[in-house]
Amino acid sequence: MITPNWTHHAMRLSAGTLFAVLLGWWVGKPVLLPAIFLLAYLAWQFYNSIRLYRWLQSPDTAPPESMGMWSEIFDGIAALQKQNIKRNLQYQSVIDDFEGMADAFPDATLVIDSHDTIRWFNDSAVQLLGLKVPADQGQAVTNLLREPAFAEWLALQGRIHTKLEVPCPADDNITLQISAVRFRKNQRLLILRDITDVQNLERMRRDLVANVSHELRTPLTVLLGYLEMLKAQPDKPDPKAIKRMLKQARQMHALLEDLLELSRLQESDSRDGTGEVDVYMLLAQLEEQANDIDQGTHDLRFDIQTGLNLRGVKADLSSAFQNLITNAIRYTPAQGSIRVGWQESNAGLIFSVKDSGVGIPHRDIPRITERFYRVGSDRNRRTGGTGLGLAIVKHVLHSHDAKLEISSVLGEGSEFRCIFPLERRANA
Ligand code: ADP
Fold first, then answer.
1. What is the band of 215 on the pLDDT scale with cuts at 50, 70, 90?
2. C-alpha distances out from residue 168 to 2, 4, 172, Å
3. Using one digit for the tens of pLDDT, what is the confidence trace for 16-60?
């Protein structure tokens, strides 16, 4: 930046004034001549100030020609302006790059404010959702995505971080998966991904597993029936072999039942069959069944809060709770204790199963809800598990906005806690 040489200009002004004083004194006008000089100097300053003002009104034009101090001021401002233009061009190029990147992003991306009003969206949002520029900027996002589930989900964001799947408003054959990210103070970024292909593949895989399981169930039932019949006969040919065959056939049957249950859960919409579930009644039934299976082997106790009902699908919840209770029975040595609880707390509505069983190694805990994941294959072979129980639990909890917490100490026991959000509480 050009900096005027102020000392030089001050000296020139002082020299001029001194010369006017001396000249005035010599010609006998010691006041008039310096006064005329200073007035002329003031007029020159004023004139240049006006030129500066006019130039600043249209800064794109070349700077006014001047001399002395003003020439340096004009040149200094012109240099500053050049710098600003260069910097603005750089900023603009960064913004253009960002917009280009955002438009090339295959997922529809929208920025919404605290009133759910659309502030910005990319090209993919235009194509995927049929948004119009600029008409849809400033519209409420719920006016464009009219699914009731979407409005509910949006209201819950911040407390629950799940993804939502909805049909595309522009084309029913497309399924969108929506996720939300909070940014800045009150804004949210909505990312809508077309998951139709992934869903189709997933459906094909599920259909295959369900169909094979279904087809295998009938012949296996027949086999099981004959084996049971053979077992009951007093003069059976090889009792040991029949016993082993029966054990394997029952294991296979349990596996098919779990596979069919899992595919039923995946197939059904989480909203189908949702109603008020009387958890007290449900757990009373499960307690009876658990006692039948356990036959007094363990110290099995239920501590259930009454009048604490849940909004959900009864059959699915029953299946999840039953799996956790059966696991506790299966993985706790005889005489061990099992506590089943259902309570309300600040964290939510909690269903818990605590046992004093074999426990789970720390490194296996994050993986035990995966299908067919086993903590040591030996353990499962002995207990007759299918490896699908916790996958079923996880699926049911997910569709009920609940989470599963597992804590365990190897050799001391485990606790499984299903935490449902308080919003899931139904009026008892
Ligand atoms: P399975 O039907 O074979 O029991 P799950 O999916 O229910 O399969 O369980 C997965 C794994 O988690 C099993 O290998 C089992 O070892 C372990 N597990 C589940 N529940 C318990 C428990 N209460 N105590 C110890 N281990 C458990």
1. very high
2. 60, 65, 6
3. 899 999 999 999 888 898 899 999 999 999 999 999 999 888 877
CA dihedral 88→93→97→102, nearest 10 degrees, is: 40
pLDDT of residue 357: 94
Residues 22 and 37 sit within 8 Å (Cβ to Cβ): no
Query: Which of 174, 157, 63, 56 minimizes the C-alpha distance to 112?
Result: 157
Question: What is 271-426's CATH superfamily?
Answer: Histidine kinase-like ATPase, C-terminal domain (3.30.565.10)
pTM flag (> 0.70):
no
**Range of weakest confidence among 128-132, 234-238, 265-269:** 265-269
348-371 tens-digit pLDDT: 999 999 999 999 999 999 999 999
Distance CA 61, CA 58 (A): 6
Quote the CA–CA distance of 63 and 79 in Å, as a whole number.
10
Peptide bond before residue 134 is cis, with ω within 30 degrees of 0: yes
The count of other CB atoms within 10 Å of the CB of residue 304 is: 17
CA dist 180 and 109 (Å) reads 10
- R_g over Cα of the chain: 40
Q: CA-CA distance, 408 to 358, in Å (whole number)? A: 9
Mutate which of 255, 355, 362, 368 for ligand 1? The one with the most ligand atoms within 8 Å of its CB, which is: 368
User: What is the CA(419)–ligand 1 centre distance, in A?
Assistant: 19
Q: Whose CA is nearest to atom 14 of ligand 1?
A: 374
User: CA 69, 73, 79: angle at the middle one, nearest 5?
Assistant: 145
Judge if the beta carbon of residue 339 lies within 6 A of ligand 1: no
* Cβ–Cβ < 8 Å for 252, 223: no
C-alpha to C-alpha distance for 59 and 79, rounded to whole angstroms: 12
Let me know: does 262 contact 388? Beta carbons within 8 Å. Answer: yes
Residues 6+ apart with CB under 8 A from 258: 386, 388, 389, 392
Confidence of residue 160 (pLDDT cuts 50, 70, 90): low
At the topology level, CATH places domain 105-194 in: Beta-Lactamase (3.30.450)
CATH architecture entry for 200-267: Orthogonal Bundle (1.10)
